[in-house]
């Protein structure tokens, strides 16, 4: 197990967003919310969605499929509503926060060149500690041991890309989501579509992992597409690269790294925007705390909002995601 200690910076050392950075952040966040069909805070897809316009599409567009265009530029998700500013909680009872994270899930969690924990989650934990102005530690453990370690008081909070689920809610409490794992379509670069609706994919060959939530979503919403199931990501992506299917549909985060990596051979790009229907793709990723620890949960929620408001969340996102899953 590896530890890293974070100490809050002096106020004069803390990062301050310039006016232009705040404007950029607001624009990116609003754009991402529009793309995902999200209102901002508590961003979730509606419980019911008409098949003609699944989450992530726009109403009132022409029925003819649009021509292929270049992929959309980088976008930064925003899951906080500036109109719902949380009140500053009483932080006097917090003296230290012991974060737990997993050992190997790059770029979110991994061991850095210096042997210390690194990654998006670790840097976000550092930013939260600086905002709350408490000393923090980060301990790396195997993912399957994190909840037990939290329950047995070997840590105070889990920041490890842990998806909120009813089963986990029975054991821990969660902060508001600090990111989501949307689903997206990918196509070859010469066939990129700016928007995807069910009618656009009628008769198209769409690859998906067999038995996955992504396949269930396509079966419910894209009933006229010709679905092809694959056993794993490698087979799925190879089918698109070889032109055996017109599109593939899956986890946008892993697809983003594949698109930008060497394995894709620069073949492919995202088509259309993100899909975030919570019935299929989950409630989002939150920070877990022990049941009933409202003091820490509220402090982390407040700090998350502040980090986003100051532009630091955007800085982190752009640092780690050269191709945005949104």
Automatic annotation (TrEMBL):
Keyword Manganese applies: no
Protein name: Polar amino acid transport system substrate-binding protein
Keyword Signal listed: yes
PROSITE patterns found in the cross-reference section: PROKAR_LIPOPROTEIN
Domain Solute-binding protein family 3/N-terminal: 96-324
Gene3D superfamilies hit by this protein: Periplasmic binding protein-like II (3.40.190.10)
Region entry Disordered, spans: 42-87
Low complexity composition bias: residue spans: 54-77
InterPro entries (alphabetical): Solute-binding_3/MltF_N (IPR001638)
Organism: Bradyrhizobium ottawaense
Pfam entry (one): SBP_bac_3
Signal peptide: 1-43
The entry's keywords: Signal
């Amino acid at each position: 197990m590896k530890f890293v200690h974070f100490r809050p910076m002096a106020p004069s050392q803390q990062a301050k967003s310039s006016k232009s950075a705040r404007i950029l952040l607001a624009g990116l966040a609003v754009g991402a919310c529009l793309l995902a069909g999200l209102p901002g805070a508590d961003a979730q897809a509606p419980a019911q969605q008409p098949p003609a316009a699944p989450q992530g599409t726009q109403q009132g567009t022409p029925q003819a499929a649009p021509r292929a265009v270049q992929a959309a530029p980088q976008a930064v998700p925003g899951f906080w509503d500036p109109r719902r500013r949380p009140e500053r909680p009483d932080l006097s009872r917090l003296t230290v926060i012991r974060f737990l994270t997993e050992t190997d899930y790059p770029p979110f969690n991994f061991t850095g060149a210096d042997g210390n924990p690194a990654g998006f989650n670790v840097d976000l934990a550092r930013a939260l500690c600086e905002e709350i102005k408490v000393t923090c530690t980060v301990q790396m453990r195997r993912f399957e041991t994190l909840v037990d370690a939290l329950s047995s008081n070997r840590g105070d909070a889990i920041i490890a890309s842990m998806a909120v689920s009813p089963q986990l809610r029975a054991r821990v409490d969660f902060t508001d989501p600090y990111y989501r794992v949307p689903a997206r379509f990918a196509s070859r670069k010469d066939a990129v579509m700016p928007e995807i609706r069910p009618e656009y994919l009628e008769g198209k060959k769409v690859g998906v992992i067999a038995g996955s939530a992504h396949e269930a979503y396509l079966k419910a919403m894209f009933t006229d597409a010709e679905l092809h199931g694959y056993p794993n990501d490698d087979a799925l992506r190879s089918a698109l690269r070889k032109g055996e299917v017109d599109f593939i549909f899956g986890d946008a985060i892993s697809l983003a790294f594949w698109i930008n990596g060497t394995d894709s051979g620069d073949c492919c790009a995202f088509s259309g925007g993100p899909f975030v229907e919570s019935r299929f793709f989950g409630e989002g990723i939150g920070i877990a705390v022990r049941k009933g620890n409202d003091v820490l949960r509220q402090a982390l929620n407040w700090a998350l909002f502040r980090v986003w408001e100051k532009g630091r969340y955007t800085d982190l996102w752009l640092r780690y995601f050269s191709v945005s899953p949104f």
